[in-house]
Amino acid sequence: MKITCIGAGYVGGPTMAMIALKCPHITVTVYDLSTERIAAWNSDKLPIYEPGLEEVVFQCRGKNLFFTTDESAIANGDIIFIAVNTPTKTYGVGKGHAADLKYIESCSRKIAELVKSGHKVVVEKSTVPVRCSVAIRKILSSYASSTSTATFSILSNPEFLAEGTAISDLSNPDRVLIGGDQDALGLESIEKLASVYANWVPDKKILRTNLWSSELSKLAANAFLAQRISSINSISCICEATGADVDEVARAIGTDTRLGPKFLKASVGFGGSCFQKDILNLVYLAQCLNLPEVAAYWETVVTMNEYQRRRFAEKIIRSMFDTVGGKSIAIFGFAFKKDTGDTRESSAITVCAKLLEEGAVLNIYDPKVTMEMIKLELEYLISDERTRKLIATNVKLFDSALGASKGAHAIVVLTEWDEFITANYAEHYEQMVKPAFFFDGRCLLDQRQLQSIGFQTFVIGKASPALRDEFFYGN
Ligand code: UDX
User: How far apart are CA 249 and CA 239, in angstroms?
Assistant: First the structure.
């Protein structure tokens, strides 16, 4: 059997590498139109960082795993995956909410142009709105002609991997979801794809559904996960005001087996390429279906997230006597979570932009993020000319946490990298301007220990009576 995949990104690359690893009898070819990206996949330095990914790619590449920019390879697949971007639309109808399906459409057209005969199983791997497969089917069938006898089945097979744990998620998934038509050909196609996963996933974990259920389940799963974070973050605000401790509350809630302990860590807000995009997509879908109450319900998950980011940045500014202008602030972490260099929708972008607006000097340290990405993200978010100018002068990247905190007035933890838990904060404190502030946006550290070193502290979801005394204006 041959498998091809269009899109060598965060989903296509690792997923295809895992299929190649687990199915040595299958030839897997990943196509992307970016020559740069494909060159990176073919080099020693892969275009994305994922623990364990290099080992898998290096083991299979050149044997049964290939990366190419040659589009003619697409038609060779018995199964053709579509794993391209579906970002939120930034223009026109549905701007700011709907998924931009232009890449899905162009892929469908490409497949229709290239495949002239035989039966192909086309798999939506990208996260798409419900009934997107109808559009793909229409495009594919519209190319049928005297010169093309090709036929197609469309399946939905959403990917649930999380960044940073992609390889373990792929090798031991909670479930594999395959949706398809419920007629004979559709069911046969579902089993064809299921037989690929069956090489390493137990059958009881391979869920078969109709197309729409599968498409909707991906959006719903991400919405539910994000909702848990917004829920615990809303509780974190109450904790700070009352003296309850958000970690204790999360533990108490999470021991209820109906709720479970995962995804209850309060934070400066969720980031990443999926949660916000997929919820907004769900909101748009509900609006289009004339379900305004449903749309409003899910929109609050994003509103809460934005509030949490803004609230944290404002807390920093207020605690530091309402003036951070010209003060160096050490930013610990810029990625949207640990173990990834990905900055998409990271809460760090909003917090840094707010501090920059106030004229702060940002000494950023993140073990995986480049200066180029930081600048791109800030430039994308900041529209005000005066603040944009400060990106060039006030944003500095350091190659160690100690370098970043030297001479700084505050440490702000924005990503939960392990090294921030084990750091010697007494050493940091020594080299900082006093009073030295510590703002923990990830509930990583023991507030009392930091206070015993001498820090003025604020940890999300924990009361900080000392800081409250510093406020000039309200709380
Ligand atoms: C998510 C889903 O988990 C995955 O199933 C889907 O396929 C893609 O979207 P990902 O975006 O890689 O994966 O990261 P995830 O680990 O889910 O974290 C998302 C954000 O939520 C991060 O910013 C993380 O720091 C934050 N988070 C997560 C919290 O703030 N608290 C938590 O308890 C968990």
Answer: 9
- Model pLDDT, residue 128: 82
- Written as six digits, the tokens of 7 are 């899109």
Tokens 């509930």 belong to 443
Please answer whether residues 337 and 271 qualify as being in contact, where contact means their C-beta atoms are separated by less than 8 angstroms.
yes
Count CB-CB contacts under 10 A for residue 154.
Answer: 24
Beta strands in 223-327 (DSSP E): none
Query: What's the 143 CA to ligand 1 centre distance in angstroms?
Result: 39
Calculate how far, in angstroms, residue 309's C-alpha sits from the geometric centre of ligand 1.
16
- Tokens (6 digits) for 152: 């197609």
Contact (CB, 8 A) for 215 and 130: yes
Biggest CA-to-CA distance, the chain: 80
Task: Name the pTM for this structure.
Answer: 0.93
Nearest CA to ligand 1 atom 1: 162
Q: How far apart are CA 338 and CA 330, in angstroms?
A: 17
Which domains are seen in the chain, by residue range? 2-201 (3.40.50.720), 303-468 (3.40.50.720)
Q: How far is the CA of 127 from the centre of ligand 1 (A)?
A: 15
Task: Tell me, rounded to whole angstroms, the distance of Cα 124 from its chain centroid.
Answer: 19
Q: Which residue has the higher pLDDT, 130 or 55?
A: 55
**pLDDT band with cut points at 50, 70 and 90 for residue 467:** low
Catalytic choice (274, 288, 352, 443): 274
Identity at 365, one-letter amino acid code: Y
- 132 a catalytic residue: no
Tell me what the mean pLDDT of segment 139-166 comes to: 89
Q: Once rounded to an integer, what is the mean pLDDT over residues 256-277?
A: 96
